[in-house]
Amino acid sequence: MSQELVERLVAELTAAGRLTDPRWAEALRAVPRHLFVPDVAWAVFDRPGADGAAIDRNADPDRWLDVVYSDTAIATQVDDGAGDPGTCSGTWTSSCSTPGIVAIFLELLRPLDHHRVLEIGTGTGWTSALLSWRLGGGNVTSVEIDEAIAERAAANVAAAGQAPRLVRGDGERGHADGAPYDRVHVTCGVERVPYPWVEQCRPGGVIVMPWLPGWNMGHIARLTAAGDGTASGRLTGQAGFMMLRSQRRPPGPPADADTGAAEESATRLDPRILIGDAQGADVAITALVPGVRTALSPAADGSMRVWAIETAGGSWAAVDFTPGRDDFRVLQYGPRPLGRDRDRLHDLGQVGAAGTGTLRSHRHAR
Ligand SMILES: C[S@@+](CC[C@H](N)C(=O)[O-])C[C@H]1O[C@@H](n2cnc3c(N)ncnc32)[C@H](O)[C@@H]1O
After folding, report:
1. Is the CB of 126 under 6 A from ligand 1?
2. What structural domains and CATH numbers belong to the chain?
3. Which residue's CA is the nearest one to ligand 1's atom 1?
4. How many whole angstroms separate alpha carbon 114 and alpha carbon 276?
5. Which pLDDT tens digits describe the chain residue by residue (366 residues)?
6. How far is the CA of 123 from the centre of ligand 1 (A)?
């Protein structure tokens, strides 16, 4: 039964262009995902109108298996273990990532036979087991910060017949014992790249990671270590991920936003242009206004507040889009003039508009 479902998943990922290397298709067949998903977990569906739902193997085994072999992220831990994955009422802190994104990252990693790989964020252990099937467990080191998650991952990889070197520790430091690595595979989001990952990489080695600077959606990054202490590369697509523990940010608007204390002005810029899914614009805006994240407060009538929030500071700005208006209210709070500097806001709008056009042509080309 699960073999049929594995084939369905392989066919789906292949048709979507996410799986092109037959060796990774073989790995998906050889390392069944269901061995890595707990009996009760939270499925995060990536389709309109279906945010998420509990899956319970004992209550409905067929549905559990069906979801496990779909292109769905499955949250396996909430609030570092304090929350309940069956209701997912908090923030998810560990997951079995979406198979499609796992495939994209593995293909981007492009390890050669006998390469040594360091994975940051063992999670359920599925990725480390797929890498072990491909390269041999002796060539795979995976670091997980959370003790309970690391223990479960060890049991999961053993059940799948794989034996990567699993390390319980802070992956921000890499794992010097196994260096140099040919590949570093980061499976949690980062805003700043921890330098040990570059140091522990062989010259010509590759680091793949979700890079989430905070402005809108995150990016898939592939860097190559130059051997002179630097690494550089390209952004190849978009991805959202939970953050490296030390770089976590609060989600959503500022919890204590005192809008009454904010300075008020107006702009003719439609603020939605700042948060369109324009990958190039996101990067340009991040460079122009570093250390700032976005949040959205949409309302049922189509109006929307777009937030720009300083990550390490108390300043924020918000622009209210109201349908039918010629100009929109700007709120500015704190010393950093995120919303007060109207020229800057206008510049960012231009970047947003240009980026949207760029992305459209990119999409047509794919
Ligand atoms: C998206 S999950 C990883 C999914 C995993 N690769 C898999 O195959 O199931 C991200 C994981 O990164 C872990 N993590 C976060 N910060 C970390 C750190 N500093 N060092 C090691 N692991 C970390 C989290 O505890 C979580 O388990």
Report:
1. yes
2. 2-245 (3.40.50.150), 259-365 (3.30.160)
3. 95
4. 42
5. 589 999 999 999 999 999 999 999 999 999 999 999 999 999 988 765 557 899 999 999 999 999 999 999 999 999 999 998 888 888 899 999 999 999 999 999 999 999 999 999 999 999 999 999 999 999 999 999 999 999 999 999 999 999 999 999 999 999 999 999 999 999 999 999 999 999 999 999 999 999 999 988 899 999 999 999 999 999 999 999 999 999 999 888 998 788 888 999 998 888 888 887 666 788 888 888 889 999 999 999 999 999 999 988 889 999 999 999 999 999 999 988 887 665 566 667 666 665 543 333 223 222
6. 5
* Ligand 1 mean position, distance from CA 80 (Å): 11
Q: Token digits for 274? A: 């700042």
Is the shortest distance between the CB of 145 and ligand 1 below 6 Å?
yes
Does ligand 1 lie within 6 Å of residue 170's CB atom? Answer: yes
The structure's pTM equals: 0.91
Alpha-carbon gap, residue 236 to 43, rounded angstroms: 26
Say which amino acid occupies 191: E
Does the CB atom of residue 171 touch ligand 1 within 6 A? yes
Nearest Cα neighbor of 73 from 57, 89, 50 is 50
CB 186 within 8 A of CB 197: yes
